[in-house]
Amino acid sequence: MELSDLPDGVLAVVLDHVARGPDGISDVSRASCVNRYFRAMALDRQRRMRTLDVRSLGRRARHAVPHIARRCTSLRRVFCDRTNITDECVTALLTASALTLERLSLADCRHLRDLHGAWERADDKSPESPESPRWFGRLRELDISGSSWSPRALVALLRGARDSLTALNLASTHVSRGSVGHGDDFGEVAGAVLGCARLRRLNLGQPVDFVVPCLALKVFAPQNGPAADAPAANGARRPTPDGVFAALEELSFQRNAAVNDDVLARIAAECMNITRLDLRGTTVSREGIAAFATRSPCAPRLRSLLLGGCDSLDDAALAAVASRCGALLELDLSMHTLVGVGGIEALAEGCRALRRLRISRNAKVTAEALGRLAAGGALESLSAVRCARAGEEALRRKLGRFAGTCRIDVVGDDFAWTTSRG
Q1: The Cα angle at residue 198 between residues 190 and 155, in degrees rounded to 5
Q2: Least confident piece of the model among 69-83, 135-149, 229-243, 372-386
Q3: Banded model confidence at residue 117, pLDDT cuts 50, 70, 90
Q4: Model pTM?
Q5: Which of 261, 344, 374, 411 is packed most tightly, with the most Cβ within 10 A?
Q6: How far apart are CA 53 and CA 365, in angstroms?
Q7: Residue 124 to residues 242, 319, 346, Cα–Cα distance (Å)
């Protein structure tokens, strides 16, 4: 039987099955060449598509996306990670779906340079009538980690999504050559970030040059006195008490050396709802961490605190963290060489819900102390790589009946730690 003889309902089932295949849209494109019925249904399907994922296309994405954008005019989710799409491709997609887009992922797109800005209506300078929908007014998640961006394009996106954006990932990003003027300090971009009052997750980590550190300092610049409530001269709007700082729940500054005690003090003073804080590889001191734990209103709500590679905590600082952060489920103390038995005992007393602990390159912590911590019954994962007094045999002996329920790692990678959220 030829495909042209199949009823429309059967063809629809076949098309749905093909669209879910490993090559996705490319399979649909090939199938649409079979006959006119299939072609018409494929085109109609493309017009009604809500999710576009071209990650499997690889190098073919650059040629496929402009053609797809002409048909897919109501996309909600776009995933182009690690493809070779260009500025023209992204401009076509954003222009076609500017009013419906909810999630945009352009991570590690090495060919992006300077988006064309066909969506300038999203800029605050353009007048809008109350009835007209704002471009990108439904965008909730934006991930451009590892990619290049221009300040003008990013500001337009953020201003358009200021009432809807909940997640922004700028880790490892950089600015395209020639798009930054002399003396530009990213104040306008920082102002656009601060204008996103519903932002819940923000990643400003893993910098490759000066861009991410500079932006982090601008967004979390210390405020001093009444003048801090006024708009900054560089265009960065200061947040209000019910603005972006009050909404933030997850913050990541991994390996961002610009993040210091002043930035942490600003977070402690104004971020009331933080539940996950990643400070790995920053320049925050043990005094700064102890002050954060002692003074921050969000400390009792913290579920994940990652401190690997920071200035080493001592037992007193860890005791301060343990006394205030009783809801912790995940704690990274890798390369904290000053932590000893007293600190682990304070942790066992104050953080009874702790599920995942990482402590590496430590010569003071003993298997007995870690065994007492595991006796609470909640510990699920313990990483003790290169801990001279906590070998695997000793750990399993001291953990006793908890050894079977707790994953013990003494030989893994003590620099990279992939976490799972509890």
Answers
A1: 30
A2: 229-243
A3: low
A4: 0.83
A5: 344
A6: 47
A7: 21, 48, 51
